[in-house]
Amino acid sequence: MSAETNPKDLAREAAAALTERFGVGSIDLALVLGSGWSGASTGLGEPIGECLLSDLPGFAKPVVAGHGGALKLIRTPAGKVAALFTGRTHFYEGRGVAAVVHGVRTAAAAGASAIVLTNGCGGLHVEWAPGTPVLIRDHINLTGATPLEGATFIDLTEAYSARLRALAQEVDPTLAEGVYVQFRGPQYETPAEVRMAQILGGDLVGMSTTLETIAAREAGLEVLGISLVTNPGAGISPTPLEHAEVIAAGAAAEPRLRGLLSGLLERL
């Protein structure tokens, strides 16, 4: 994505390419499947089509192990057209905020009214074992960045939809809620940074999602955020953190995650 390209124009171009490629007039909702979630994307509805994300304008191949690199279109049990993004661009890749939120803006330009943003994260509560999904109630953005430009004042009082969280809890009443804290990455947080996040009111730490949420709210999308706890945060974990843990936790939790997403798509 060049500096000269208007990011919203590029999103509209990608949306037009998406709808033309798959022969649909528009999409109804989108899901961004983060670390540990891609395996749960199978069997969620009737397949419409699939392509590499990098085949669409403005997208690049995912660089993180455990992320897919495809865009899948499905028809949900509720009869809606859903776009599944099995991968995302992270802020730490250095491609700029516009690249990070390109998928969200493309979904909105293609007609989506709601988006489910998922991630793998560190948990700050010992009772949340690896493999535990947690609804995001609110967030703290520590990246120092925003996808908004100029005097664009977006209310984030309810960044994460209470209505959609209630639907998720209909599917799984055991789901807890928490505040997600995004660090820039790519290094994992230090124990001191984890303690800081706890003092600030955080329950989950990771390297994605908040910038996408801001862009989604600017575009008028209703947002549901779900974190998969893949490891305890630094200083809570008795062992050093490794990305292999993230992948393993996602694989182990796959049946539960697929059940959660399937139940959501029946209701959305």
Q: How would you characterize this protein structure?
A:
The protein has about 270 residues and is of the alpha/beta class. It has a single domain (about 5-265), classed as Nucleoside phosphorylase domain (Rossmann fold, 3-Layer(aba) Sandwich). About 30% of the residues lie in helices and about 25% in strands. Strands 5-8-7-6-9 form a five-stranded mixed β-barrel, surrounded by four helices. Helix 1 (about 5-20) crosses helix 3 (about 100-110) and helix 3 (about 100-110) runs parallel beside helix 6 (about 210-220). The model has no long low-confidence stretch (mean pLDDT about 95).
Work out the count of structural domains: 1
Major beta sheet, specifics?
5 strands, mixed, barrel
C-alpha termini separation: 32 Å
Task: Give the overall shape, derived from the CA principal axes.
Answer: globular
Order of helices and strands: HEEEEHHEEHEHEHEH
Specify the number of helices. 7
Q: Which architecture does the CATH hierarchy give at level 2?
A: 3-Layer(aba) Sandwich
Q: What brief labels describe this structure?
A:
alpha/beta; five-stranded mixed barrel; Rossmann fold; 9 strands; 7 helices; 30% helix; 268 residues
